[in-house]
Specification:
By secondary structure, the chain is an alpha/beta fold. The protein has seven helices and five strands, in the order H-E-H-E-H-E-H-E-E-H-H-H. It folds into three domains: 1-62, no CATH class; 69-148, no CATH class; 157-192, no CATH class. It has helices spanning 11-17, 33-50, 67-76, 97-109, 157-165, 171-174, 176-192; strands spanning 21-25, 56-60, 84-88, 132-135, 140-144.
Amino acid sequence: MRSCPMNPAFEPMLTRAATDRYILLNKIDLADPNAIKCHVEVMEHYAKIALPDSQTWVFPVSLSDRSFLRKLIKDLKHPLKYSKMTLMIAGMPNVGKSTLINSLRNLGNGKGKAATTGGQPGVTRTVSGTPIKIIDDPTRIYLLDTPGIMDPQIRDPVQSFNVALTGGIRDHLAGMESLAEYLVFALRVRQRE
């Protein structure tokens, strides 16, 4: 998508919280390699504007390559930095939030799946009532799974098609025929570039 990656309705809530955050750009194995660096820079730029008093780290990741997750788990196990903490995973629908939690849980304490996953958006419908323990020793780190968060009023039709094509909303909500026509159009434009 060629638009601001931050959610304009969600950012003010984060600003009030003024907390440090990791932004993981998931599924980079599916992204245009030339665009990844640009997206990281844009996210870092908007994070500095939205959260000037907080630290933000932006990482392009693919959950199929667990090397970054191993580094993250190693950092979270540092007892002088963290003793007990509950983290929230938030993001657009169908970007792999629950899969990320399950991967971190598996790497952190060797336990299996705790968050339900699926190929369609909307599998997670509420914030998990019980925090999911991902690290047991020497620190205690928990994660809350959340449903996908997005601006309910996508005003730009191109953006709504892009969100539908990437699995952020159910296909039929954008109109299957219109979605197919847009996909053919977008592929032709990209082919010319």
